[in-house]
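Morning F.,

Quick status update on the modeling queue. The single chain you submitted on Monday has been processed. Sequence for confirmation:
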Amino acid sequence: MIKVAKFSEIPEGGSKLVMVNDIPIALFNIKGKIHAWDNRCPHRGGSLADGNISNKIIQCKFHLWEFDVDTACAVANSVLKVKTFEVEIKEGSVFIDGQ
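Structure tokens below.
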């Protein structure tokens, strides 16, 4: 596991972009739970961290593709999935499995 941020750096309902092994990873704080996703939208590579964030949906701002927060799958086609990373919170820090 790799330390990537402090929990306090990710506002509730917001995001933080980090780089791990040259991979941009979006950290989302949804109702106090941190989700770590590859930041690149599978459609055209748009930044998901810069998208619209709700309690249920992350929406890419470029072409408005929507992804379910819990499954990381596209709402319109569940076959399309964003790569996710395992998250652990320890002593106020966020760790992810960077593989």
